[in-house]
Specification:
The chain has helices spanning 11-30, 37-56. It is an all-alpha fold. It has one domain. The longest helix has 20 residues, at 11-30. The radius of gyration is 12 Å and the shape is elongated. It starts with 10 loop residues before the first helix and ends in a 7-residue tail after the last helix. The mean pLDDT is 86.
């Protein structure tokens, strides 16, 4: 089962996905394990994709 397409989620689901992905990325970043590099990069890319969609929907202020 693949991850959901962010465009297909409603606003609340997208915000929950954003928070959960951000927490998971923070946890992975604290681990000192070179095997996590690809997972960390995947999560960073996913988080960026979610942030982009949130900005499109005006649910997240730009930095």
């Amino acid at each position: 089962m693949g991850s959901p397409n962010v465009e297909d989620l409603d606003d609340e689901e997208l915000l929950v996905l954003y928070e959960n992905t951000k927490k998971l990325l923070e946890a992975r970043s604290q681990e000192d394990n070179s095997n996590n590099n690809s997972k960390r990069q995947f999560l960073q890319d996913k988080l960026q994709n979610i942030e982009d969609e949130l900005r499109v929907r005006s649910l997240l202020d730009g930095d």
